[in-house]
Amino acid sequence: MRTDEDGREILLYYIRPGESCIMSFLGGIHNDTSKVIAIAEEPTEILFIPIDKVNELIREYPEWLDYIFRLYHRRFEELLEVVNAVAFKKMDERLLAFIKKKSEMTNNKVINVTHEQLANELGTVRVVISRLLKQMEEEGLVELGRNKITLVN
Asked: Any idea where the domains of the chain sit in the sequence?
């Protein structure tokens, strides 16, 4: 996630098992603080690599550099999707796409999330999310429960 000066947040991308946060990686290489925060939504095991070992890894294992470039490319595409969504899609479209993606990632039609969490991840306010979810429920797209949303389709 990225947080602005006012404390508003927006989800940039998810890190899946076996992946790395390219923003943290680049921050470390340039001896700079990462400009993003990561939140673990489930029990997570993290491997930290000392920066002084990264150059050694790149030199001795060219596949490591290939991994970094492929990851950078994937994250860049995901960030472009976020920019396109913010610039060109209405919030209801973004919300439904987000719910579908989260359902796909967890392989579960039931998503345990609060309206506040959704608002933070989409860069809006809770009242907007609550209103849109109610409309989606009336349209038969989702079923709402306490801190959970069930994707109907």
From this structure: 1-88, 90-153
Q: What is the pLDDT of residues 84-143, one digit of tens each?
A: 887 788 999 999 999 998 898 888 999 999 999 999 888 888 999 999 999 999 999 999
Best CA proximity match to 98, nearest among 9, 34, 8, 12: 12
β 2-3/142-145 pair status? unpaired
Length of the chain in residues, anyone?
153
Residues 111 and 133: their CA atoms lie apart, in Å, by 13
In angstroms, the CA 72 to CA 68 distance is: 6
Chain-centre distance for alpha carbon 93: 17
What backbone phi and psi angles, to 5 degrees, belong to 24?
A: -65, -40
Q: Is the dihedral of CA 56, 57, 61, 64 positive or negative?
A: negative
- SS3 percent helix, strand, coil of the chain, rounded to 5, is 55, 10, 35
Under CATH, which number does the domain 90-153 receive? 1.10.10.10
pTM value surpassing 0.70: no
